[in-house]
Amino acid sequence: MPGSGRRKPLKQQRAIETRNAIILGAAAVFSRVPYAEARLKDLASESGISEGALYFHFASKRDIAFEVVAVQQERMHGALTEVLSRGGNALDKMLSAYAALADLVASDVVVQGGIYLQNQPGTELADATNEPYLEWVRLARILVLEGVEDGSVRPDVDADGAAEFLNALFIGAQVLSNHADSWASMPVRMRSFEPLVRIALAPASS
Amino acid sequence: MPGSGRRKPLKQQRAIETRNAIILGAAAVFSRVPYAEARLKDLASESGISEGALYFHFASKRDIAFEVVAVQQERMHGALTEVLSRGGNALDKMLSAYAALADLVASDVVVQGGIYLQNQPGTELADATNEPYLEWVRLARILVLEGVEDGSVRPDVDADGAAEFLNALFIGAQVLSNHADSWASMPVRMRSFEPLVRIALAPASS
Amino acid sequence: MPGSGRRKPLKQQRAIETRNAIILGAAAVFSRVPYAEARLKDLASESGISEGALYFHFASKRDIAFEVVAVQQERMHGALTEVLSRGGNALDKMLSAYAALADLVASDVVVQGGIYLQNQPGTELADATNEPYLEWVRLARILVLEGVEDGSVRPDVDADGAAEFLNALFIGAQVLSNHADSWASMPVRMRSFEPLVRIALAPASS
Amino acid sequence: MPGSGRRKPLKQQRAIETRNAIILGAAAVFSRVPYAEARLKDLASESGISEGALYFHFASKRDIAFEVVAVQQERMHGALTEVLSRGGNALDKMLSAYAALADLVASDVVVQGGIYLQNQPGTELADATNEPYLEWVRLARILVLEGVEDGSVRPDVDADGAAEFLNALFIGAQVLSNHADSWASMPVRMRSFEPLVRIALAPASS
DNA sequence: CATGAATGAGGTTTCATTCAT
DNA sequence: GATGAATGAAACCTCATTCAT
């Protein structure tokens, strides 16, 4: 995972601010336009700095993209663990996890940029970009199994299939939301899926 | 039809073949690499023709991409109408429609190229690329309503929500399949979702 | 030795001409200005072609420089073998060899470019540039030994020292000539050294 | 000299040290790499100071290079006059002068940097760089004539030719030594030329 | 005096498109 | 109809220089 982690100490406060501004501006551009069509000129102007300054903080355009993805991962991970630490049965936790992520996606430009960057297989970026998907699937699988145990999920579901099912749903919602209105409708969309997911996974009722 | 008239058609015949070769080669490239990273040189070599010759058949790279998307639409549409013309209740039709599309996606390079091209909002291509999504949703909605009528779908489902649900699932599966193995696993994946979709949409059983 | 040897067949006559024009123009620039200060813009205009066309024929500025050096080597080698194949004793052959090389240096732009390129150790070019010097020394050594045998060189000279002596003289003359008048005076200069070299190497006379 | 006057000189003292450090560091870089490829960043780090600080002591990169050349000239001049002030006939003085310079070249980084800087005609530096060569030739000429008078040099030598001969030899040795081992072998090399030079210039023997 | 951060001009390289054969 | 060669705009990146602290 290149791009993650500080290279230099960054001695001045001003530098840190600039660095953050770059990540923010870059994410904004990357969330609107495919990586290869994102112009350095735009990253710079969106960040309010000169083009050359980018290279004081990052080694290349590629590195900037990696950093955006890294921050996105961090934030999504943060949101996730926060939600999962709350009480409730596994199914509820799962659904509120997706809801929380949907909120994050709708509101956080860096997350949007990171997501869109990941949706471009075959790019220079491919490497740093493939792993996350697998991680989500793994997590979902764990939650499904947990749900079977605590009774919130039907015992006859295929854990792997269900995990991918949830993931496909989430990713599809991202793509559709992006197409529709740049992720603004993401939370609504996910919420509208909830009842169907509940029916699909929850025990026959009671 | 005297032989004297043949000369032109014969030439056209060759042109048509070349044209198809271009579309096929282009689709192959577009299915692996984002539009902006697809090199004309690669389209040409993958099609087995020279770079300059592309411009005899198409006005620009953009046009080639459009044509790939057009053919993809055509083929998906064809597969769809073929499936939908068969008998069965709406839910069954719906599921076999998605299954058929999944097969198509897994086997047809042009369809793959078209799909991947569509997954790049914000591009030059954006215009020609946005509509199809809406159409799928519309179609799904109609089928859901049909299902409510013929009793294959629970009467209390929200047609709009269910339509988007199905669509998100399908699109998410595409993205995941592409990431995983260039769409090879698409049919399996969709089939593994079927039981969950049935439970989510079908009436409580009896 | 990258840059030496044809990459592609170069199917068209025109291409071959252009390629040669590039080498010639590039050499002209490289003979006036250090590698790192040679502007592609100048290489192009001096060759009468567009900047981009350079990249149809060569992969990089570096490669162009390598090719110039390669051609220079070739030409110097050619001139050398031509001279050495003539009759005469070893000392005479040696001196007329240096004279012939001096003429070549004064008249051939590609040779000038190659020479100046080689005089920049520590550059990107370093690799392809170091070997030739050693080769000259080796050749001079052989001739000195030959001279000892045929009696045209004093038997008590140190072959290694004499070889480097001759080489230093030749290289120093190049540097001075370049400084003075872009190599124009090279032949005169070398000729003015001849008597001294004869005295230094020839037997005490009689 | 009251203590109250010392404050400024003290500051200057520090400045002088920094200035010297810069020249030393710069020379080290300039001796390895052509002017245009020498990075200010490297000059700075090699000098142990910050990039910005360079501009407190010098107006530009070009100025630093000039200063390196100036110091080099100074030191070579110093070594020369020291040697020439000793006794002996002209030929001996000449040879020990070159020997002394060779020692200096091998041991003094600033001299190395200066020499390498001068070997780049066509640069921004060209102006300040051309003169020295002429001066060496002039000096050598004078010594040759002196030698003719004191009998240490054959009376029939062409003073101009001999002067350039000696110079070419010295410069060629520099180039070869630099290529071979960054000037380390310079003294050995020059010494190995001595016998040949003696034979070339000294009277027929006796 | 010194430092790290920022600027901006300009360099090399890429690549869709056009041209001559 | 087709090819290889050429163009030129624009992209990414470098780096001497300047600025704020």
UniProtKB/TrEMBL annotation, chains A, B, C, D:
Record bears the keyword Transport = no
- Mind listing the GO molecular function terms for this protein? DNA-binding transcription factor activity; transcription cis-regulatory region binding
Q: What is the superkingdom listed in this entry's lineage? A: Bacteria
Transcription regulation as UniProt keyword: yes
Per UniProt, which keywords does this protein have? DNA-binding, Transcription, Transcription regulation
Annotated DNA-binding residue span(s): 39-58
Residues in HTH tetR-type domain copies: 16-76
Which Pfam families does the UniProt record give? TetR_C_45 (PF21935), TetR_N (PF00440)
PANTHER family (alphabetical): HTH-TYPE TRANSCRIPTIONAL REGULATOR BETI, HTH-TYPE TRANSCRIPTIONAL REGULATOR RUTR
**Name of the protein this chain belongs to:** TetR family transcriptional regulator
